[in-house]
Each structure stands twice: as C-alpha cells, then as structure tokens.
Amino acid sequence: RDKSSILLPPALPGKLPFFGHTHKVIRNFTNMQELVKHAANDCAKQGGVTHLVFGRDLYYLIVDPQDAFTASNACLRRHYGQNFAENWMGKGIALSTGDVWKYHRKLLNPAFTLPVIHGFLDVFNSQSKKLADSLEPHVGKGSFDHCPYLLNNSLETFCVGTFGIDAFNDRESLQEYMDAVHKMVIIIMDRVLKFWTHNDFIYWLTGLKKKEDDVLKIIYSLADAVLQKKKATMANEGSNINTEFDITGTKYKPFLDLLLELSKNGALTDKQIKEELNTIVATGFETVSNQLTYTLLQLGAYPEVQEKLYKELLQVLGPDRDVGKNDVNKLVYTNAVIMESLRTLPSIPIMLRCVDNDVRLKNYTMRAGSCCLIFPLACDYDQSWGARTDQFHPERWLEGDFKDDKEFAAFGLGKRSCIGKTYAIVSMKVALAHLLRRYRVKADISKLKMKYEFVMRPLSGHEISIEKRT
Ligand code: HEM
C-alpha cells in the first residue's frame, strides 16, 4: 500500500513546504524544553495527535493518554538518536530490541522488585545522610545550586548499589569511574546536538570518537575489574554467591551479584553483564537526582506542602530514625509529593520510538517507517487529573479516583516502561526523609529554566536555600 495514502493528523504549526519543521527544531536546539512544551500544548489543542517533519523523517506527536498507551506497546524499538549511547550501554535492556530485549527484560525484572529494593535501604539511608551532611555548609548562607550535590551523591549510590563494596572501597577507581560517566553523558549529548557528527566518519574525523573511546576504556575497565574479582571469589568459595556486605552495619546485594545469580546457568555472558551494569548506572543516576532537584525546588516553593510532609516524616520516623522497610508504605504523603513532582516536572519529558509497522490509533494510523514522540507531561496534564492540573498539589494523589499506573506516564507506559521505578521511588523517599527532617527549604520556582537532553536538566532558577530545623 502507498504509505502517503494514509491520512496524517494535523501538522504542528510552522510547517514549511519542502523543509517541514526542520528549521523550527534547529532554531530551538539550544532551547529544547520550550519546543517540547509548545509542541505538547499544540498537540493537546489539536486533539491529542499531530505530526512533525524533521529532515526526511515523519514524527507523530502523541499526548492523548489512550493513544500514548497504544503507541508505547506497539512501538518497542527506540529511536536511532538513542543509539549514540550504544557504545556505553551496548545491547543492555535500555537499547536492545526484539527478542534480545524481551529475554533480557524478563531475566532482569526480578532484580528490581520491592523486596530486592528493600535490601538497598541501608545504602539509601547512609547515602542520604551523607548528602544531608554535604549541604550543611550552605545553612543560612542564601541560595545555592544543589544539583551537583545530588548528582554526585546519586551516582555514588548507583556505583555502590551496582558494583558493590569493593568498588566503594577503592575510592580512586570509583572517582575515576564517576568522572568518566559524567564525561560520557556530555560526549553523547554533544553528538546528538551536533548533527553533522551523526555520520560515523565525521565523528571520527572531529576527534570526538577518540575522546569517547578513552572514556569508555575507563568505564569498562572498572566493570571488568569488579566482575573478575567477584568471579574469582565465587570460584574460591564454590559456585554459591553469598555476597551480602556490611557497610555501616548494612546488608545488601549489589546488582552485580543479583545479575550473576540470575544468570547462573550462563544465561548472560560477561560482556552482557557489564553492559547491563553500565545500563543501570546510565539510566538511573541522573533521572533520580534531577527529579529530586525538582522535588526540593517545588517543596521550597510550596511551604504548606513541605510542612505537611515534615509532619508525616516526624509521625512515621520520629526526628532521626532511618527509614526501614515497614516505613516505606507508611510514607503516604511523601509518596504523593514524589508522584506530583513526576507529574508536573518529569525528568524524562519525551519517549522516542520507531514505528516499524502501521499502528492504528483511535483516529489515525501511524505509518510504518516513521517515528513517534510520546509526551508524559501533557498526558499527565489531562483534565481527568482533577482541578488545577497546572498546580503542584500532592493531595490529588490522596483524593481517590485518580488515574492508575496504566495512564501515569512519567515512568513510561506499557511493556517497555521503566524497570527502575521502585528503586527510584524508594530512594527518593529515603532522601526526602533525611533532608526534610534536617532542613527547611526555600525556593522560587518561577524562574526555573531547563534544557532537554533526553533527560530534562536544570539550567537556571533551580537554586534553593536551607535553614536548619530545630
Ligand atoms: C525519577 C526517576 C526515573 C524516571 C522519571 C524514569 C523514567 C523512565 C522512562 C520514562 C522510561 C521509558 C522510556 C521509553 O519508554 O522510551 C524509562 C526506562 C528505563 N529506566 Fe527509568 N526512570 C527513572 C529511574 C530509573 C532508575 C533508578 C533505573 C535503574 C535502577 C532506571 C532504569 C531504566 C531502564 C533500564 C529503562 C529501559 C527499560 C526498557 O527499555 O526495557 N530508571 N525510565
């Protein structure tokens, strides 16, 4: 069938003959969050599905919640732009596709369940206290940028949680790994934005490929060293993995051990294990830390919400007790605050997928060979979220009758949604529990500017000030 005979949804405003929307996207490369916001709003105004043409590619933009769900489940392959991270994450679950993805996802799911994540609670508690300590010099000193503190702490938590105590003990390699991860993120984003480097030969010519290779060597050598050491220990102690470690009286099983257990019968090769470990760090650390940056900012801007949260923390945990596994579900308002932050400022504002076969939506059919952009932000601004959807109002999560997980899109929708959702929510609860009992936060959210680089990064206006709670 002639693809062009399939009816297109309305075009996003600004389409030019021949150029499509390319000029619009290029003009906004450095201000992508505005483009994301406007595109989502225009799409909502035009009935929930629109189209955009960038270069030679046709994109469907989707904010309608039902169509977003259909598209998420029907289009499982990620957009080629995300493949620039492939040298880092390899064919780990975030980037693989087809049967490889299905097999790995099924294998890894058990490592992300609530009982397993409970095993990380002591790591979360000790890391959150460390984070609170690191902010202490800013008490009463006016506003400051809390993002780098959160980013570094989150990356460290991920390294410890992923690779284990050995990596944590070797501070130098850990720091080297963390620096390499930061550099890798910059290199990938640089390549995404400089479209002329998308061509492999030009990428190599510009010297960027060499830079990437050097950084990757560091990233993989740490993963390799830890894996080989763990395998040697296993060989000495028999095939059983008995690896619960103690840091500050802490018992936990790093993802490395969980993966080795899950692939006891050789289900994963060493290379695949390293790719999955790097995937966990790459996909997790910045999404969590940026989300926490926004949550603190929102709490600072909405003091009445902060006081309610503080009361719940005191009631459930008292003034300084750690969060235990029986507390996690009792922190109901804390949970509502996190969900509301994800609804209003999701750290992943777009899901980008390839349309491999024609996909029937409610009113249109997406053509095979095109791409689609699914917006969680606009889906969650849908009026069925109740009144004042543009306001930060955690109570909406407690007032019953709100949407279920199936339509809440901040962690993605359907089969390929976020595997780390439970990790993210529990770790953020613990961080808030320690930070908010120690400090009162103040902030002005009205000047917040962010940039879109697959994750939404705070650019300016996100500073907070802190005072010690007595
Ligand atoms: C607030 C924190 C987080 C947010 C907002 C978030 C959001 C998302 C979203 C929206 C997707 C789906 C993307 C798509 O459909 O194209 C996703 C996928 C994924 N996330 Fe998260 N995430 C968070 C934390 C984490 C954490 C902590 C981990 C790891 C421990 C993680 C690991 C992953 C992985 C591996 C995928 C790919 C899953 C697959 O393709 O099967 N995420 N995340």
Structure notes:
The chain has 470 residues and is α+β, with helices and mostly antiparallel strands. The protein has one domain (3-468): Cytochrome P450 (Cytochrome p450, Orthogonal Bundle). The protein is built from 18 helices and 12 strands. It has helices spanning 22-27, 32-45, 65-74, 86-89, 98-108, 114-118, 121-135, 147-163, 165-169, 171-193, 200-205, 208-237, 255-262, 270-301, 303-317, 332-344, 376-381, 421-438; strands at residues 49-54, 57-62, 245-247, 250-252, 351-355, 359-360, 365-366, 370-374, 439-443, 449-453, 455-460, 464-468. The strands form 5 sheets. It has a 4-stranded mixed beta sheet, with helices on both faces. A two-stranded antiparallel sheet has the order 3-4. α14 (270-301) packs across α18 (421-438) and α15 (303-317) runs antiparallel to α16. The longest helix is centred in the middle third of the chain and has 32 residues, at 270-301. The structure holds protoporphyrin IX containing FE. Protoporphyrin IX containing FE is lined by residues 93-94, 105, 279-280, 283-284, 287-288, 291, 342, 346-348, 351, 410-412, 416-420, 423-424.
